[in-house]
Amino acid sequence: MNKMWKIFLIICFLCVSGCMKKDEKIVKSDQKEREITLHIQVIHEVEKKELMNKDITVKGNIHTLEDFLQHADELAVETTKGQYGTTLMGMLGVRTEDFKKGPWWLYDSDNNTSCKEKGQCDAIDILQVNDQDQFTFHFTSSF
């Protein structure tokens, strides 16, 4: 009986080790550097002007919109982490000064898969992006 327990424990150890190795491969493959191009339009609705409308390409460990924005230096993005995720606070030198009063940064996409499926975009730290997605960022006083 003692021998059976040893065999059982060895089998369990091998199974757990094998699963851990598999998970490590997944994590490593997810961290591949890739090049992503997004079409970015930035509209300052308070002043009624377009600040940007062009394709931006970045290279790095890009999976979420937050990853992309952090690598897109020309956007000069400012974020803050809160209990509901990462919040966009500033872009191109335009910043939300009082989050309770606004104006705020909002964003949407006509072709991002997740945004289309849900009818709205997730928070930037969980929203998955794909090459050629298009995003419009609005600095607005209304929802």
How many separate helices?
3
Report the structural category. Answer: alpha+beta
- What series of H and E elements makes up the topology? HEEHEEEEHE
Q: Give the helix level as a range of percent.
A: 25-40%
Just give the CATH class of the largest domain: Mainly Beta
Radius of gyration: 21 Å
Strands across the major sheet, in which order? 2-1-7-6
- Tally of domains: 2
- How many distinct beta strands? 7
User: Shape, please?
Assistant: globular
Please, what is the average pLDDT? 84
Topology:
Layout: H1 2-30, E1 34-44, E2 49-60, H2 65-71, E3 78-82, E4 85-91, E5 94-95, E6 104-108, H3 113-118, E7 134-140
Parallel strand pairs: 1-7
Antiparallel strand pairs: 1-2, 3-4, 4-5, 6-7
Describe this entry's structure for a reader.
The chain is an alpha+beta fold and 143 residues long. It folds into two domains: 1-31; 34-140, Ferric Hydroxamate Uptake Protein, Chain A, domain 1 (Beta Complex), CATH 2.170.130.30. 29% of the residues lie in helices and 34% in strands. It has three helices and seven strands, in the order H-E-E-H-E-E-E-E-H-E. It has helices at residues 2-30, 65-71, 113-118, and strands at 34-44, 49-60, 78-82, 85-91, 94-95, 104-108, 134-140. The strands form two sheets. The chain has a four-stranded mixed β-sheet with strand order 2-1-7-6, with helices on one face. Strand 4 (85-91) and strand 5 (94-95) form a beta hairpin. The longest helix is centred in the N-terminal third of the chain and has 29 residues, at 2-30.
